[in-house]
Structure formats: structure tokens, C-alpha cells
Automatic annotation (TrEMBL):
Coiled coil: none annotated. PROSITE patterns: LON_N (PS51787). One of its GO terms (biological process) is proteolysis. SUPFAM superfamilies: PUA domain-like. This is ATP-dependent protease La. Pfam families: LON_substr_bdg. Keywords: Hydrolase, Protease. The keyword Cell inner membrane does not apply. GO terms for molecular function: ATP binding; ATP-dependent peptidase activity; serine-type endopeptidase activity. The keyword Ligase does not apply. PANTHER family: ATP DEPENDENT LON PROTEASE FAMILY MEMBER.
């Protein structure tokens, strides 16, 4: 059967989706399927999506036989293909790789279902709980889809709905596609959803920390500018505040890391409140002058061979 290698995409039986293809072998495989194979084509995902010349060892062993519903040429010379997944199949080998891939496949058996009604209910509730947590942290999900998934009471259909519409890694989707047990598939989905929830939560924490750091830096800069403007209005540019502002300007120009810059700014703020002739003010000035006179971020190439 003509085969098409997918990049970063896993299709499941029953799924309808479109994608663009540009490689000659992919376009040839689609044309062969339409003209000589009743529009049937085997879709299988690449293990390494950066590889152009695909070999059997760079393809997952489980794929889906799909029906090509429509094709469309795009302005950039690619081909947009609309397909519907029909059934899963095992890749036994590649018998031809030019001018298109020809696969030797074996249809996989239907999904085994040994779960009791109570076990199915328990899995459905667990999946709904994990999905709710994921959705609360992913506000881009359409409300109709969200409600439809929570209203689904058939375990197999629920798994399909989530796999079709929730972001999961290619490796995780491939593991679900290869699984022949409803129990195992449900267990894997719970595991993958929980992992995605943890990742999204971690991303939010990182973004919040970055935002807080940026807000603090912007606030400190704004307050310093306000103090500088007040000093100008009061004609106090010969006082310790003016001197401290000059040091702050030099510090910002040096491009220090955040911790170093924060420490030096604190020394400048201390200088603002000291008497210009005090011994402590002299110590702070000496410290700042010594630090700022050092060749920060300036490198020379020296010979280390003695």
C-alpha cells in the first residue's frame, strides 16, 4: 500500500484532519493512492521529523490506513490533503522507496475491552478530573469542546475525543495508538494528562516569576527616574542623590547580571542617605568606584601555553 511519512503528527482511526505535504515522494504516494488504490493510503509518523530521506528504521511500527477525502494545490507549490483515519495497522516493512514509499502492513486487532462497568466509570471520572485541571490552565480551548468532552460517558469515545483535541507529545500519542487494550489506553491517558498538567503548571510558575522580576525592575527604574526629576526641580543636583544617580547610570551601562546589579543599586541607595563628608559615604564611594573601574564584560585572548 502507498505510504506517507508524517512529521510531528499522529492520526487515529475516525480522525478527520488536513495537512500539507511538499516532498516529491509524499505527493507521488497521494497520487498513487487516488488513482490506483481506492484512495487508501498508509499514514505513519517519522521518529525523527528532521530527516528528509525516510527509511523504515525512522518510522514508528504502528500507523493508520486512511481515506483521502480531498486534495488541494497551495500557492507555495505544496499539496493540502484531507484524510479520515479508518483502522490501525502494523508496519512490517518498506518494499519500495522511490518514486514513493510502498509499505507492507498488517491490520491490527480491535481494541480489547475487559473492563467492568464500575471500572469504566472510575476511569471516566479520573480522566474528567485531569482534563478539567488541564482546561483550567489552557483557556484557549473552545467552550463547546470542553462541555462535549465532560458530557461524554463512553470511555473509548472519551479517550478519542481527548487525544484528538488535547496537546500531547508525539511519543505519547504513538503509545496510545499502539495500545490494544482499553484498560491500558485509559491508564496511559491518565498518566499523560497528569504529566501535561504538571508541565503547564510549571510553565505558568516560570512565566509568573519572569513577570514579577520584570515588574520589579520596571518599578525600580520608574521610581529612580521620579526621584531624579524631583531633584532637578529642587535644584539639588549637587547633593548625594545626584551622585548616587550618576553611579546608577554607570551600573546600568555595565550590563551586570541581575544579582550584581541589585547589590550595587542598594549601595547607591545607601549613599543617597549618607552625609557627603561622612566616613561611611567615603567607603561606599570607594567600593563603587573600584567595582565600576574593573573591565566588566571585556575579554582578551591570552596564551596559556607555558
Amino acid at each position: 500500500m502507498p505510504a506517507l511519512a508524517l512529521r510531528g503528527l499522529v492520526i487515529f482511526p475516525g480522525m478527520i484532519l488536513h495537512f500539507d505535504i511538499a516532498r516529491d515522494r509524499s505527493i507521488n504516494a497521494v497520487e498513487e493512492a487516488i488513482e490506483h488504490n481506492d484512495r487508501r493510503i498508509f499514514l505513519v509518523t517519522q521518529i525523527d521529523e528532521d530527516v528528509d530521506e525516510v527509511a523504515a528504521e525512522n518510522l514508528y511500527k504502528t500507523g493508520v490506513v486512511a481515506e483521502i477525502r480531498q486534495t488541494l494545490n497551495t500557492p507555495d507549490g505544496a499539496r493540502r490533503v484531507l484524510v479520515q483515519g479508518l483502522y490501525t495497522a502494523k508496519l512490517c516493512g518498506i518494499s519500495q522507496d522511490d518514486p514513493f514509499l510502498v509499505s507492507d502492513i498488517t491490520p491490527m486487532p480491535a481494541l480489547s475491552d475487559t473492563l467492568s462497568a464500575a471500572e469504566k466509570t472510575a476511569f471516566i471520572r479520573t480522566i474528567h478530573t485531569e482534563f478539567k485541571q488541564y482546561s483550567e490552565m489552557s483557556p484557549r480551548m473552545p467552550i463547546e469542546l470542553y462541555r462535549g468532552i465532560l458530557a461524554e460517558k463512553d470511555l473509548s469515545k472519551l479517550i478519542d475525543l481527548i487525544v484528538f483535541n488535547v496537546y500531547l507529545r508525539v511519543e505519547d500519542k504513538q503509545a496510545l495508538l499502539s495500545c490494544l487494550s482499553l484498560r491500558k489506553r485509559a491508564e496511559l491517558l491518565v498518566k499523560f494528562l497528569a504529566k501535561e498538567v504538571d508541565i503547564v503548571r510549571l510553565e505558568q510558575d516560570i512565566n509568573e516569576e519572569v513577570k514579577e522580576a520584570l515588574d520589579k525592575n520596571q518599578r525600580d527604574f520608574y521610581l529612580r527616574e521620579q526621584m531624579r526629576a524631583i531633584s532637578r526641580q529642587l535644584g539639588e543636583f549637587d547633593d548625594p542623590q545626584s551622585e548616587a544617580f550618576e553611579y546608577m547610570d554607570k551600573i546600568e551601562e555595565c550590563g551586570f547580571d541581575e544579582d550584581t546589579e541589585e547589590k550595587l543599586i542598594k549601595e547607591c541607595e545607601k549613599l543617597m542617605h549618607l552625609s557627603p563628608g561622612s566616613q561611611e559615604a567615603a567607603v561606599v564611594r570607594t567600593y563603587l568606584d573600584t567595582v565600576l573601574d574593573m573591565p566588566w564584560n571585556i575579554y582578551t585572548h591570552g596564551k596559556t601555553d607555558i
